[in-house]
Design brief:
The chain has about 190 residues and is an alpha+beta fold. It contains three helices and nine strands; from the N terminus they run ααβββββββββα. The strands form two sheets. It has a seven-stranded antiparallel β-sheet with strand order 4-3-2-1-9-8-5. A two-stranded antiparallel ribbon has the order 6-7. InterPro entries: PH_bac.
Length: about 190
């Protein structure tokens, strides 16, 4: 037979809930903030290190004199996503500001492609440096629906570069592919 413990004995044995240890909680929060700051610092250092590795990349060309007087083949307003080593969609190029995402305005003429980026460095790709254009879905870790990115491949010094753009009106992408590929084929024909 079991004996029941009287209720007054059970009540006497109860302990009150432990009070929150604020010093331990604050220490954990501070530790977490320090860890986050360390991760961001390491990311920044990695970005600078990548820029130093790519320091052999020549300076980017600027818009030539009289470019505004050229006959405009196409214009595009949208976003510049990034530039990578051609064929390597994750090998981002950060030298000379090519790794900075920004708004962009593209202008294509017979002399080349003018890339105007408010808030980032502008650059010019001469027609002789253009290699091809294509539609793709991923570049530098940015993945979009199939055909969501306009990729323009061009030569800069000894390096082949893929630059990714996304128009505000995705229906324009195919016209850009056709125009750039036509320009590269006529430029190759005159260079021979």
């Amino acid at each position: 037979m079991t004996t029941l413990t009287p209720l007054y004995l059970l009540a006497a044995e109860q302990k009150s809930a432990e009070v929150t240890d604020w010093s331990a909680r604050i220490a954990w929060v501070i530790g977490l903030l320090v860890f986050i700051a360390l991760v961001y610092w390491l990311m920044r250092e990695g970005w600078k290190w990548r820029g130093r590795l790519q320091s052999d990349l020549p300076e980017l060309a600027t818009t030539p004199e009289g470019f505004d007087d050229d006959e405009v083949l196409l214009t595009l307003t949208g976003r510049y996503h990034a530039s990578t080593t051609a064929g390597q969609w994750l090998d981002r190029i950060v030298a000379h500001g090519l790794g900075t995402r920004s708004r962009t305005e593209l202008t294509l003429t017979a002399r080349g492609l003018d890339v105007v980026r408010p808030g980032a460095s502008d650059f010019f790709i001469p027609a002789e440096a253009l290699r091809e254009a294509r539609l793709d879905k991923a570049l530098a870790g940015k993945v979009l629906p199939e055909g969501g990115l306009l990729i323009i491949t061009w030569a800069h010094g000894e390096t082949q570069i893929d630059s990714g753009f996304r128009s505000d009106h995705a229906a324009e992408h195919q016209a850009w592919v056709d125009a750039v590929n036509h320009l590269t084929s006529t430029t190759e024909g005159t260079a021979r």
